[in-house]
Structures are given as C-alpha cells and as structure tokens.
C-alpha cells in the first residue's frame, strides 16, 4: 500500500446548519421549480431507500482528500493503492465506531481492472469489525457494458474523497429539488456554488452525505480499464471515459467544498449506485431529467 504521508490537516469552523439552509434557499429556487431545504433530524440511513452502512452522519465529522487525478494522468500510478481503514486512522477517527462514504477509484488490484468506487462502510468496536456496503462500477472487458455490484474490499486506488463521521443520528440538511429550470444540472455543484457565494473564500464550508435520484435519468461516467499507453493530453482522458445515461433510482454519495483553503482539494466528487441489482451508477455528472432529494 502507498504511504498516506505526508498529510495536511485543516480545521474548519462551519456555520450552523440552519444558517446554511437559509443561504441555499434562493439558489435552489432559482434552479428548480420545486425545492426545499431544512435542518432536520436524520432518518435511519441503514434502511431503504438509502442503504448506508450507518444510521446517521453525525459525530466527529471530517473529510479526507487522498491522492488525486495526478495519479491517473499522464500515466496511471499503479503503486498508489490505499486502505480505507488506514485513511480512517489518518483522519483520527475513533476505532470504537465510525463510518465512511464518498467517491474514488476502485481497487483494481482486487477487482481485476480499473473501476469506480462508492465507499460505504462502518465499523464498531475496532477497525477489524467492518460492515461493508461499498459498490463498484466497471466496464466489462468482453461486452463493453456497465456493471455495478457490491465490493467486499476495503481498499481503493489512485484517489478518493471521503466523508467520515461516528455514524450517529443527529441534525442534517434535508434538500429536495424537482423540475430543473436553471442551467446548473448538478445538484452538488448547485449547492457548492451557492455556498461559495454565501461564505466566500474566507470561510470554507465542506459537506458530505447522500442524496437520491428518485426518478428520471442522470448522466454518469465509468472509467474503463487502464489504457495501454500514456495519455498525451487531457482530451485523451475525456475520450477514454465511457458516458452513460441511467434511469433512477440511484443512491449518490457526495463530498464537496465551497472553497479551497490552499490544500489543492477536489471541489466536488459524487459516485452513485443502484441497490436493486440494476447496472446503474458510476461518477455522477448531471441530471438529464430527474427528481432529486437528499
């Protein structure tokens, strides 16, 4: 496994959820015909329709940005393999209990090829006692079709963005959005842009959690297996990716930042999966036609 060192730590001073909800209202109303945002108690996310490995998203909240796109371009750095549990330890998370959700590149060394990862796991009592509901999305080498399935590994590769918490019940932002009328097709980007407009560069706000594409369709990409030759330019990466439009429902795990405090953060990263056995998911780009809710 690649070393997680060196690491940088930045302490945030987030505003109250009620204040964030107020700041988001106008941006959502401008982009969707019907929207709402409130600070409310979190439902039990272990159950349908969320299917997370933890009850809530509260307690010792923290976010990690590991690796990055430089590990993919111009040549994939196959030595960059990470343990999600080692990342949790580097995040100074409690071994007695916690959870991780987010988006990253899958453990190619376990799956047998490059893939997209939707980390979704928790632990209790120790880091050895893990409940893993993680999914991977890959492109079948023989047919070129998208395949989405559970993944028992707790590894990742190249890059990953994670939201960590104690997994306890507590207050969360509940966001609903339906009938897009504005230009912003990505719900996370709509939220992130509104937060930056409200708080600027001087007060970064980071969010993580889950939202649902409840109906309609959305656009995703799935990385195929690694290319045989280095990428010559960024356009080659775009041409290499496979793009898909999948029908709802999908469960989307997201991490976002309103501003970068000089750490070189990936500003938003969202990976999704279908829990009903459908081969739908991957890296979320935008809705095509959708009914979105948090």
Automatic annotation (TrEMBL):
Subcellular location field: Nucleus
Entry keyword annotation includes Coiled coil: no
Alphabetical keyword list: Hydrolase, Metal-binding, Nucleus, Zinc
Pfam family, one: DUF1907
Domain DUF1907: 23-291
Entry keyword annotation includes Magnesium: no
Entry GO terms, CC: nucleus
Main location: nucleus
Name of the featured protein: DUF1907 domain-containing protein
Natural source organism: Cryoendolithus antarcticus
Taxonomy of the source species: Eukaryota, Fungi, Dikarya, Ascomycota, Pezizomycotina
């Amino acid at each position: 496994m690649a070393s997680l060192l060196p690491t940088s730590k930045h302490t945030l001073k987030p505003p109250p959820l009620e204040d964030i909800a107020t700041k988001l209202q106008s941006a959502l109303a401008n982009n969707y015909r019907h929207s709402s945002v409130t600070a409310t108690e979190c439902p039990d996310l272990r159950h349908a329709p969320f299917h997370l490995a933890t009850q809530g998203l509260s307690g010792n909240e923290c976010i990690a940005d590991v690796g990055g796109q430089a590990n993919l371009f111009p040549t994939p750095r196959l030595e960059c393999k990470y343990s999600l549990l080692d990342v949790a330890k580097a995040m100074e998370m409690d071994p007695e209990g916690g959870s991780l959700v987010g988006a990253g590149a899958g453990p190619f060394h376990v799956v047998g090829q490059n893939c997209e990862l939707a980390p979704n796991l928790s632990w209790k009592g120790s880091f050895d006692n893990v409940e893993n509901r993680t999914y991977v999305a890959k492109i079948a080498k023989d047919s070129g079709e998208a395949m989405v399935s559970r993944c028992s590994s707790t590894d990742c590769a190249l890059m990953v963005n994670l939201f960590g918490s104690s997994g306890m019940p507590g207050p969360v932002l509940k966001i609903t959005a339906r009938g897009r009328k504005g230009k912003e097709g990505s719900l996370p980007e709509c939220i992130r842009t509104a937060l930056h407009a409200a708080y600027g560069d001087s007060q970064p706000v980071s969010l993580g959690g889950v939202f649902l594409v409840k109906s309609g369709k959305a656009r995703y990409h799935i990385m195929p297996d690694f290319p045989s030759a280095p990428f010559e330019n960024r356009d080659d990466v775009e041409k290499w990716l496979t793009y898909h439009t999948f029908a709802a429902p999908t469960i989307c795990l997201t991490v976002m930042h309103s501003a970068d405090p000089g750490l070189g953060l990936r500003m938003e990263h969202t990976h999704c999966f279908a829990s009903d056995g459908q081969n739908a998911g991957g890296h979320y780009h935008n809705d095509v036609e959708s009914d979105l809710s948090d």
